[in-house]
Amino acid sequence: MNSQASLLTQVEGGIAAITLNRPEQRNALDIPTLKALHALLNELNASAQVRVVILSGQGKGFCAGADLAEWAAAEARGELESYGWTETAHALMSRLHSLDKPTIAAINGMALGAGMDLALCCDFRIAAASARFKAGYTSMAYSPDAGASWHLPRLIGSEQAKRLLFLDQPWGAERALAAGLVGELCADDQLLAVAGELAARLAAGPTFAFAQTKTLIREGAQRTLAAQLEAELAAGLLCGRSEDGAEALRAAMEKRTPHFIGR
């Protein structure tokens, strides 16, 4: 287990487990944490030893969003618009959303504001029974600033997104599951085990093809069907020429389970 003050990281069996480690601040995201997480994601994305990433929070909550103490200090200095939190958060959210490796958010307790947005950037969201989701923006007379206005309509539809953002009431894990905000619900004491099982299954899969699929899904919303079909053709050629593609064909012919290496 490696420690970087506000983050804990462990890599084992192709799975990188990142834990936000500011429990006394409810894992709030100050600028140093945002930058450290961004740098860590770059490192993990470039590592051949990492095939899947799990993100979780230390203690009783997943993430309380922006660090209000840092925010208030910037306001007191007259630097609220220039101290750089939003730009730094945007860079992190973009990096997480565009990561080549599959990502899993294991959500315990509260995911508030940018903490909820962090989970929304992941490919898979597993909620513990204790999980709570709250936008937090309009209660502070603020509009979304870390991706919620982009992710939520796509995940849960426009009206449900507006209910979550405008009314700003906490959603429990069951409501989040019913709305499609998360894909799986489990007992609190099973959260990391359930996330680990999904991660292990993904890590054993054709991660090169997963990366191509993630890119197709991410970029497809801006394309016509004809353009998307062209993109699928190009991605398919890359997959077919990959070592995993050759291994999949051999395994099918030999009637055995393929062994994928992510290339």
UniProtKB/TrEMBL annotation:
Keywords tagged on the record: Lyase
Protein origin, superkingdom: Bacteria
Pfam family for this entry, one: ECH_1
InterPro entries in UniProt: ClpP/crotonase-like_dom_sf, Enoyl-CoA_hyd/isom_CS, Enoyl-CoA_hydra/iso, Enoyl-CoA_hydra_C
Family: Belongs to the enoyl-CoA hydratase/isomerase family.
Protein name: Enoyl-CoA hydratase/isomerase family protein
